[in-house]
Structures are given as C-alpha cells and as structure tokens.
Amino acid sequence: MTFDIKLKSTPPLKLAVYFLFFALMCVYVLLILYPLFNMFASSFKTTREIFQDPFSLPTAFSWDNYRQVWFEGGFSRYFLNSVTVTATSMAIVILFGSMAAFGVSRYKYRLSTLVYLLFLSGIMLPLKAAIIPLFLIVRNLGLMNTHLSLIFVFAAMGIPSTVFILAGFMRTIPRDLEDAARIDGCNDFSIYRRVIMPLSAPSIALVTIYNMVPIWNDFFFPLVFIQRDRLKTLPLGMSTFFGQFQINWALVFTALSIAILPMLIMYLFMSKYFIKGMTAGALK
Amino acid sequence: MNQRSLSRNAWIAFFVTPGLAIVAIFIILPLFMSLFNSLYFWRGMARLEFAGLENFRRIFFQYPFSERFFNALGNNVKWFTTTMLVQNTLGLLFGYFLSRRIPGSPVFQRVFFVPVLFSIVAVGFLWRLYLTPGTGLVNQFLLQAGLGSWARPWLGEQAIATYVIIAVNIWRWLGFPTLVFYAAINNVPQDCLEAAYLDGASETRVFFQVIVPLVIPAIMIITVLTMIGSLNVFEQIYTMTGLSGGPYYSTDTLGTLFYRTAFGGVDTGLPLIGVGSAIGVIIYLLTFASSALAILYFRGRETEL
C-alpha cells in the first residue's frame, strides 16, 4: 500500500520516532501480558511462595486453589448468578430494544422523534447518579435482594443504546421489502420477525457484545441491591471474597483468574467481534 | 381508512411500549425523583418539609460537605485532564501508527483490547495486590532492577495515590480510544492523504492538518465518554483505596462521596437522602453541561469532505 512505512526511504530522525512508538507499543503489550501471566502463575503457587518470590514459576501443578475458590469460596454460585442475570437482561434488551428500534425507524408518525429522543436521553444520563431513587423504587417494588432488580436496571441500561444502534441500521433497509411482505399477507409483527430482524442480524451481534460486556462486569448495582450471599454476581462475589481472604494471596489470585478467564477465552475466539462490538457505540 | 390508522397506531404502541416503559421507570423517573428529593429535608427514609435549595447550599458552603465536595470534584478534574492528556493522546498516536500498518499491527490491536473487557473490580483488586508496599510485584520489580529508592506505598501516599489509580485505569482502557481512532483514521479516504503527500506536505503536517480534522467526530465522542467516565468514577476507588477514598480523602471522588452520603458514611454515618440527591443532581448537571460544551466545541471544528 502507498502509506505503509518504508524503512529504506525514511530519514533517520523520522525513523527514530517510529521506533520510539514501536517500542512504546511493545512495552504496553508486555505491561498487559506479564501481569496476566503472573496472575495465572500465582494462582498455582502458595501464598508463601508468592511472598518469597513473586516472579517465580509454580513448582508443583495443582488445581487445589481452584477447587477451594470454586466450591468453598462460592464462585460456582456467583458464576451461575452472573450467567443467569446477564442472559436474562440481554434477552430483554435485544427483544424490547429491537422492537422499539423497529417502532421508531419503520413508521412515520408525529411522536416518533420524541420517542426516539426519550430513548436517546437514556444514553446520556449516568444511571449511577440516580442510585437513591432507584434504591427507593426497587425497595417499593419489593425487589431488594432479587435478581429481578438487577435485570430491570440492566435492561434499562442496555435498551437506549440498542435502540440507537439498531434504529440507525433499520432505517437503511429498503421499504420495498416491507411492501412486498405486506402484499404477501404479512402483518406488522411478521414483518419485524421475518423480514427486518433477519436482515439486522449482524447489527444485533454487535449490540449484544456492546451491552453484554458492561452488564457482565457491573459491580455498582449488585453492590446496592444484593446483600444475600447466594444471590451475588461474580464482580460482587469477587469483592466479598477479597474482603475475607485479603491475606491469602494465592486464593485471591485464583479468584481473579476465575473472574477474568471466561471473558479472555471468549475473546480469544471472537476478538474481531469484540473489538467491533465494543467500539460500535463510538463509531457510527 | 380510519380503521387502518387505528391498527397502525396499535402496532406502533405494541412495538415501542415495553422498551419505553422500562426506560421511563428506571431512567427517566429516577432523574425527576432525584430533582424532587433534593429539594426536601429528610430524616432517614422519611421525607420532611420543603427545603428549597438548602441541600445545595450545605454542599457548597457548610463544613464538612463543602470541603469533601470540592476535594472530590478536584479529583474528578484530575481524572479527566490526566486521562485526556495521557490515555487519549497516546490512543490517537497509537491508532495512527496501527493504521500505518506497522509490522504486527493486528497483534497489537488484539492485545491492546484485552484489558478493556475486564471488570474494573477485577483490575482494581489485581493491581491493589501488585501495588502492595512490601510484597507487591511493582516494588519487588523495582528492588530487583536496582531502583529500590523508587519503591513506595503507591496507594498510601496522598500526593500520588489518585494518579496511581488513574494509571491503572489507563492500563485497562487505553485500547479503547486506540481502536476507535484506528478505525476512524482508516476511514479517511486514501486519495486525501495521497493528494496531501503529492503536494509535498510532511507527515507531521498531514497528521495535524488532514487526519486530525477528519477524525474530529471520533475525538469528540472519546472526549464526551471520558467526561462521563471521569464524573462517574467509583469502582476504581472502591477496590483500590476503599469507599472513603483514603489516605485521608486524597482519592475521594464525587462517585464515592455520593455513595457515602446516600448510604451512610459522611462523618455522622447516617444516610442523608436530601444532600445525597443534591450531589446526584450535581453529577447529572455536570455530565450534561460538560458533554454539551464538548459537543458544541467540536461541532464548530468538524470538517466535511
């Protein structure tokens, strides 16, 4: 390509700047990979070994730490809770979000701009700043210490951006397709279900990743709504665990590895989708 | 005809209502409740009489609220400026170099994005262990590298603790602006760059006068996201130096102060719904005002091809 860096024809000063940045990027790669590697390595060591030499590799390979954290530390339950809450919230986000996107992008009516703006306002408003009224609402609905409280709040967190991204895409689908389906006897729901949704599949994949990562990682709302240990999600469980086992570094490193591994494994297989999905909101 | 438009409206309602209801109850209603609650006196969970702007007055002028508030706000400003200067500048430059197809560019992209996916809680606790004074990885590394005099209690010194937490957050998030800028720069039409080079423009000039103006929309979004993020910092402090933003409030932010006020912990230890709501309203206003300002500022500088 025309603008690839050509080493031979580049003046030395410029070359030095290129190398400086190349070196900086390599340093950042090391700064990412080594701490993660060290975390995994430490999860197979004993706390005494970690304290004696944090850089050493594990001497004996045993899943004992993992067994302890997963079963006795409650991480199996935290993990399951996170899966349940994330999956349910995401199902609601995708279903209601895509329906609303269809409703604002495929019909022309006087209120459509207002409805669209209401959804948009949800992107701009920081939900954390509303924690007091949210707490009161959740309490009055009798949802304290239930997964339902998290599911509702996460759905509210995800729907606005879903409407924004999907409506943007659905607007570009030609109206002829819809008219043809209508002549074939489709009602509005089957147009949504059988014409628009299948065509939107790639955008839906993006939106799924865009919302799933922050919902899976969220800590703030579980912290406020969930006190009962058996209902805690992974990030909140991690925090409780850290509070109890702070001194036992081997177990804390193991817990951190368990918390980080699922995301890392998924990323290894679909890194392109993750990058595209996460940056989808910032790039129209 | 009337029948048809009636059923059309029913369909619209069918599609829009469920989503709108959730957003209305859990986003828009709380906004107005915050405003409303901030104008009343409270005792615990019981609303008392109308207070006017008294709660806001207490935040701005009454000890200890005023001191804590401006201290926390100052830290939020530090978060914003440091993140803009270090993370987003590096992100723009890294994004540019990646778009120049330097060797290993796809690998860099993938690795840079790894920490972006991790929860702030996991990252916070991980680095809290690494930054522990005696046994932590960072000080051990400095010691073995012969830089023992640099070793210090990173999260225990008032002067640096906030910057250390910001650095950890940059470690987590740098990949995000990098890849946003990378994609934006890749979208700059090649013939634009070609024309500039053919006119004899240097690379620096092309970068500042062609590329930067054309990626203003991306710069704007990253700036707005940084503003929103900086005003809502919470988990980073909670996991690394604790809810009260130690040592001696030096890492306190609006988010942690807000949480302590709302759920108990500012000096008296009692939840203060009125003052708490007022802080919430201030966070809303600051978020809204700063984002609007940033958008206005950059809109005027956007270049259309």
What does this 3D model show about the protein?
The complex is a heterodimer of chains A (284) and B (305). Chain A has 284 residues and is mainly alpha-helical. Helix content of chain A is 74%, strand content 0%. Chain A contains 14 helices and no strands. Chain A is globular and about 75 Å long. The model of chain A has no long low-confidence stretch (mean pLDDT 91). By secondary structure, chain B is an all-alpha fold. Chain B has two domains: 2-37, no CATH class; 54-299, MetI-like fold (Orthogonal Bundle), CATH 1.10.3720. Chain B contains 14 helices and two strands. Chain B has helices spanning 2-37, 54-61, 65-99, 105-112, 120-130, 137-144, 161-173, 175-186, 190-198, 203-214, 216-231, 235-240, 254-263, 273-299; strands spanning 40-43, 46-50. Chain B has a two-stranded antiparallel sheet with strand order 1-2. In chain B, β1 (40-43) and β2 (46-50) form a beta hairpin. In chain B, α3 packs antiparallel against α11 (216-231), α9 (190-198) packs antiparallel against α10 and α11 runs antiparallel to α14. Chain B is globular. The two termini of chain B are 46 Å apart. The chains are: A mainly alpha (284), B mainly alpha (305). Chains A and B meet through α1, α4, α5, α6 and α7 of A and α1, α3, α4, α5 and α6 of B.
Top CATH class of chain A: Mainly Alpha
**What is the count of distinct domains of chain B?**
2
Main sheet attributes: strand count, strand direction, barrel closure of chain A: none
Largest interface comes to: A-B, 93 and 94 residues
Discrete helix count of chain A: 14
Our measurement of the CA-to-CA distance between the termini of chain B, rounded to an integer number of angstroms, reads 46 Å
CATH domain class name of the largest domain in chain B: Mainly Alpha
The H/E string of chain A reads HHHHHHHHHHHHHH
Gyration radius of chain A, to the nearest Å? 24 Å
Any guess at the CATH architecture of chain A? Orthogonal Bundle
